[in-house]
Amino acid sequence: MMKRVNRIFAGLLATLMLAGCREDTAPASPYADPFDVHLTYSVFGDTKPFSTPLELTLTNNSEQFEYTRTTDLWGKVRLDGLLPGEYSVSVTGRLTAAEVAEITGGPADAGWTLTGYASSVRLRTGAGNSLGTLTLASSESGAIVFKELYYAGSRTPSDGQYRNDGFYSIHNNSKVPAPLNNIYIGVMEHYGGFNQAPPLWEGEEAGNYRNVYVKALWKIVADDAEPVTLEAGATAVIAVMAAPHNKDAQYNLNSPVDLSGADYEAYVIDPQNPYPDFPAPNMKMVFWPDYSYLWRISVFGRGMVLIEASAADVAGFEQVVLPSTFWAGGETEEYYTCLKVPNSFVIDAVDLIQNKTTSVTKLFPPSLDAGFATVEGTYVGKSVIRKVKSDEGGVVVYQDTNNSTADFEVNDAPLSK
Question: Relative to the CA of 145, which of 25, 40, 124, 364 has its CA 20 to 30 Å away?
């Protein structure tokens, strides 16, 4: 929801002339110079209009307020009334099933999402403004999506920091059962510093990566498990540690969650692992070169992915090392080793960042996530959760536009929905 910003800008120039005459000069506009935007989709170009308008969300990174604007059917809109500053811009649209069929040359049962993203867009007064290069990408919504992500940790009764209670829930967003045996969950690398763009991987274009670089990857259903399906509208909870966190004083009574009923757990099978192995089924750790005994992502957030692939596909993913020129120093090559996964295997991606002012740290291209989600803090005991799109006879469908800024909201009571 756009935040209203009320500011009074007034200017008065009083010049005392020798003759005692006073001249008032009207103040200059406080807004950035207006400019026209024309967004096109490469497949259509300027040859035909969209079936529905596109929506732009412009987030002022320093002041943390937002504007929303809607284009006409040709993707055109005039941007005015914007305060100067640095912005992140996300675009969301929709292709109909008929348009998808036109693109693919075959029948289509559903439409696709259109997304676009641009960061570090500077809007000024007295300067020619533009959104720079903003490319629209299309993608098909997957059946299995992230529903809720709780990563920021919580405070203990003595005001200490606790982050063993993290969890991620996945949801079958379709109307038919979906198999889980070839679904993986992973966390992206992030080697850049606070509010710094991540380093550029070899062969990639900044802002338009063709691959995701995964720091740790887990197979949700272990290899030796029976076939598992997630029913339509059903949710599965993946716990970092499937403990009764807020029910047992040895954990954290101030935690917002009890994960003893989790469907899966990220337990590292290692004789030296000091943490208990709770009853929840263990996922299979597929890739984590510099693993520790507990899989906790940063409380500042990290890019999270769901991948659908066969065992042969995963075996073929390349292990790559970040170019040494980007190393911070002090770490080993193992620390900078990632699994290079083509975007075509990614069925859902959510860019988790610390707050709206750090959007330069986004890792995914617009085709995977044109926005980001955040709880705007650390150890706050809050999660991000998808917005409900519809509820038909108890089968909940969540919003999935491939733009996490639009799709997610903060949940003050994780696991409550």
Answer: 40
- Joined together, the tokens standing for residue 9 give 């800008």
The 10s digit of each residue's pLDDT in 57-106 is 898 887 778 899 999 999 999 999 999 999 989 888 888 888 888 877 77
Highest-pLDDT range among 125-129, 221-225, 351-355, 377-381: 377-381
CB of 406 within 8 A of CB of 375?
Answer: no
* DSSP 3-state of 224: coil
Q: How far apart are CA 256 and CA 95, in angstroms?
A: 40
Query: Looking at the structure, do residues 86 and 168 belong to the same domain, yes or no?
Result: no
User: pTM for this structure?
Assistant: 0.77
* pLDDT cut 90: percent of the chain above it: 62
Residues 261 and 200 in one domain: yes
Give the number of other Cβ atoms within 10 Å of residue 226's Cβ: 6
User: How buried is 292 (Cβ within 10 angstroms: 0-12 exposed, 13-18 middle, 19+ buried)?
Assistant: exposed
* Cβ contact 26:19 at 8 Å: no
Pairing of strands 154-155, 167-172: unpaired
Calpha distance 260→54 (Å, rounded) = 43
Q: Which of 349, 148, 369 is nearest to 239 (CA)?
A: 148
End-to-end CA distance of the chain: 21
Amino acid at position 75, single letter: G
Which of 398, 385, 341 lies closest to 364, judged by CA?
341
DSSP state of 267: B
CB 199 within 8 A of CB 270: no
Instruction: List strand residue ranges (DSSP E) for 244-317, in order.
Output: 264-265, 284-287, 303-308
154 and 29 fall within a common domain: no
Q: Which of 94, 115, 139 is the last residue of a domain?
A: 139
Q: Is the dihedral of CA 9, 26, 36, 32 positive or negative?
A: negative
Q: Which domain holds residue 406?
A: 144-411
For the four alpha carbons of 406, 303, 42 and 199, in that order, the dihedral sign comes to positive
Domain count of the chain? 2
Mean pLDDT of 289-310: 95
Q: What is the pLDDT of residues 17-54, one digit of tens each?
A: 333 333 444 446 689 999 999 998 887 777 889 999 99
- Report residue 407: phi and psi, to 5°: -85, -25
Indicate the pLDDT class of residue 10, thresholds 50, 70 and 90. very low
Coil, helix or strand at residue 403: coil
